[in-house]
Amino acid sequence: MLSEQLKAMQRVCFAAEPSETDLARLGSPERWLVYRELVRNRLQHVSGVALSRTKAAVGDDAFAAAFADWLAGGGPRTRYVREVPLELADHAIRIWAQAEPPWVAELARFEAAEWRVRHAPPIPPTTDEFAFDRRPHLKTALEVLRLAYPVHRAPTPGAGYDREPTLLGVYRDENHRPKAKVLNPLAADLLEAWKRSNETVTESVQRVAAAHRTDITPAFIEKLSTLIADFLSGHSARVP
């Protein structure tokens, strides 16, 4: 049956060691062993590109071991090669959190976020002008990360990172490259609210400002205007 053939193909490609039974079922064992290496090398290469800094931090052997462990557990659930590094990261972060310096898992989270926003589908444009009484419309793919280490910066050679709580807005710029903006807690909460887009801009600003016990002063409005211009569509209207 075709379904049994497909399962055998998956096991041959992703199992720690392919079984003689599966190779015989598929025919031409030598050809399938070559195909197995091609598939595994392709997926590991893409993952190494997406998580390049993490791979450098853990080393080639540890990265390959995490990759092999992920494959042995079933391998990709996605049909899209671009999503493979994200599935690997979800699996490997748990391994690296136990076996590597504590900032390594955070670095993998950061690089996975960069990869996600880079390859996220385009956000449909809006013709609406910005208005406080409307729900926000993001103009770019965005993720808000709450990290314990400043992994967006270059590490200290030989030491890595000291603990430093860090809030980041990871987004895709106009050239489709991932960028990271350091946020304060209020800005991070606002961006998360704007991502949900289940309340108007006014409602989100008032709620978040109140939660942070922050008065809406001219200085606050000035910073808010920058955040709106950076992340919301239809921002050409002036913020009062």
Number-wise, the strands total 3
What kind of sheet is the major sheet? 3 strands, antiparallel
Give unreliable regions as ranges. Answer: 236-240
Element pattern in H and E: HHHHHHHEEEHHH
Strand content: 5-15%
Tally of helical segments: 10
- Span between N and C termini? 67 Å
Estimate the mean pLDDT confidence.
91
Radius of gyration, in angstroms, nearest whole number? 23 Å
Instruction: Specify the helix fraction band.
Output: 55-70%
Structural class: mainly alpha
Overall geometry comes to elongated
Assembly classification = single chain
Q: Numbering strands along the chain, what is their spatial order in the largest sheet?
A: 1-2-3
Word description of this protein:
It is a single chain. The protein has 240 residues and is mainly alpha-helical. The C terminus is likely disordered. It contains ten helices and three strands. The protein is 55% helix and 8% strand. The radius of gyration is 23 Å and the shape is elongated. Strands 1-2-3 form a three-stranded antiparallel sheet, sandwiched between helices. 30% of the residues are buried.
Task: List the defining traits of the structure above.
240 residues
Helix and strand arrangement:
Blueprint: H1 2-14, H2 20-26, H3 29-50, H4 52-58, H5 60-72, H6 84-99, H7 102-119, E1 142-147, E2 166-172, E3 178-182, H8 185-196, H9 201-211, H10 218-231
Helix pairs in contact: 1-2, 3-6, 4-5, 4-7, 5-6, 6-7, 8-9
